Amino acid sequence: MRVLAVEDDTRIAEDLRRALGAAGFVVEICGDGEEAWFLGDTEEYDLVVLDLGLPGLDGLTVLKRWRANGRTMPVLVLTARGAWTERVEGIDAGADDYLPKPFRMEELVARARALVRRAAGQAAPKQAHGGLELDAVKMEVALNGQPVGVSALEYRLLAYMMLNRDRVLPPTEILEHLYGDEDSREANALEALIARLRRKLGPGVIGTRRGFGYFLEGRAS
Question: What residues are annotated to bind DNA (predicted)?
C-alpha cells in the first residue's frame, strides 16, 4: 500500500518512514504544504498521514483542497497536543482520523492499517478470499489453513490484491502501489514476482486476465 507522509520535522518523518515501511507500506515523504497538495492531487495513495503545521501551505488548507477536488483517499491528521480545535477543524475538512502529538508509532501504524482496510470496505484485520488468508497485524499469509512463507514484497502484493479483491488490477496500478520511488517499476519485475508467488501458492489463487491485469481467484470469504 502506498502512503504519503506529510511532515516537516525530519526526525518524525524518518520515524514514520521506518515504522510504516516495517508494517508493509510503501512510504513517500514530503515536508512542504504546496508539494503535498500537488502530490495528493495528482498521484494515487492508499493513505495520507498529514501534519497540519506545514511550511508553504498549512495542512488544513491542503486537506480542504484535496476534498474540494474530489480526492477521497483516507487521511490521518497529526495535530499538536491538546489542540482540540485543530482536530475538529480537520475532521470537518474531511480527515478520517486524527492523532495528537506526541504519539506512539505503534498506534499510528494500527490506525493506518485500519483506515486502509475501511476505505476498501474491509474492517477486520484478518482477511480471507477463497483459501487465502492474510493477517494484517502479524503480516502473515496462510493458504487453506497452512502458513506460507513470503517475502515483504510478496506480502505487499498479496495485501494490495486482497484489498482490491473484487476487481482486476492493471499492472501499472500494482507497480505504483507496490514499489517506492527508488525501486524498479518495470513490468518484468512484477511478472517475476507473480511467478514466485504462484510457485508458492499453487494454481487457482492469482489469476490473469490477458490484456487487463491480475486478480485473486475464488470467492470472497
Answer: 124-218
